[in-house]
């Protein structure tokens, strides 16, 4: 049972419903050009929620968050930290892929503030259902959506911040910043990124230790099944 008294099944049903609703969201034009919305996935009451910016080309086609190049880098970090992705709830601030066409290629475009604002209620509803103990904001768009203010990622990274509801939000770079970064600085940038993320290891560790003895085997309810 979650802290708000909401059980797993109703929370899962809520997430499924939300995921379907984002697909038909009329509140900004992004959905018209995207293949589908990309909703969050992961355990219904994950302790740690990771929030990215928006789906990329691959995510738009597959319908799952962080499955493209940035996602592979994120997965590598998760492995190096000794976390496992299937214990994380992973989502984005903006649910549709924004891009511009260059020939046949769809090139990522950063969402406008009004688009991130229009999408915010989906993210807030997701947070309310998952009730994570803490969140990680990957990049400026996610950080702004979560903290409700402009976040200077380079100076505010690697620290916990508090959102309006008192939740802890760790700010760090988006993995695509590492993909784009100076090749000579790659190793240092990687180390610094892992150091930022490792601040959330304590939260992750708790997810591995059941708070109390279970009297019967827990059924795994995962929002992945809800949306794919
Ligand atoms: N970048 C993001 O921010 N999210 C994704 O899901 C993929 C790339």
Task: Describe the structure in your own words.
Helix 1 (8-23) runs antiparallel to helix 5 (113-130). The protein is built from eleven helices and seven strands. With 228 residues, the chain is α/β, with parallel strands linked by helices. The two termini are 25 Å apart. It binds uracil (URA). Uracil binds next to helix 4.
Enumerate how many helices there are, as a single number: 11
Question: Based on the structure given, which CATH architecture is correct?
Answer: 3-Layer(aba) Sandwich
**Approximately how much helix is present in the residues?**
40-55%
CATH homologous superfamily assignment: Uracil-DNA glycosylase-like domain
| CATH structural class | Alpha Beta
The largest sheet has its strands arranged as 2-1-5-7-6
The string of secondary-structure elements, in order, is HHEHHEEEHEHHEEHHHH
Q: What general form does the structure show? A: globular
Low-confidence stretches: none
CATH topology: Uracil-DNA Glycosylase, subunit E
- Average pLDDT for all residues: 92
| Class derived from helix and strand content | alpha/beta
Bound molecules: uracil
């Amino acid at each position: 049972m979650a802290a708000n008294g909401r059980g797993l099944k109703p929370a899962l049903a809520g997430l499924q419903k939300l995921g379907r609703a984002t697909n038909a969201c009329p509140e900004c034009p992004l959905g018209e050009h995207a293949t589908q919305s990309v909703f969050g996935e992961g355990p219904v009451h994950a302790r740690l929620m990771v929030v990215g910016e928006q789906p990329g080309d691959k995510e738009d086609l597959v319908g799952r968050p962080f499955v493209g190049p940035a996602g592979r880098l994120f997965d590598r970090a998760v492995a190096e930290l000794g976390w496992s992705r299937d214990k994380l709830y992973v989502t984005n601030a903006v649910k549709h892929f924004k891009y511009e066409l260059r020939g046949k290629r769809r090139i990522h475009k950063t969402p406008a503030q009004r688009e991130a604002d229009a999408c915010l209620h989906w993210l807030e509803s997701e947070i309310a259902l998952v009730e994570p103990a803490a969140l990680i904001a990957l990049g400026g768009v996610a950080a702004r959506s979560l903290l409700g203010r402009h976040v200077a990622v380079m100076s505010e990274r690697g620290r916990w911040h508090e959102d309006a509801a008192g939740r802890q939000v760790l700010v760090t770079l988006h993995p695509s910043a590492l993909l784009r970064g100076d090749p000579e600085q790659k190793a240092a940038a990687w180390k610094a990124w892992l150091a930022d993320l490792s601040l959330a290891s304590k939260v992750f560790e708790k997810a591995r230790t059941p708070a109390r003895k279970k009297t019967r085997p827990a059924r795994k309810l995962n929002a992945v099944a809800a949306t794919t």
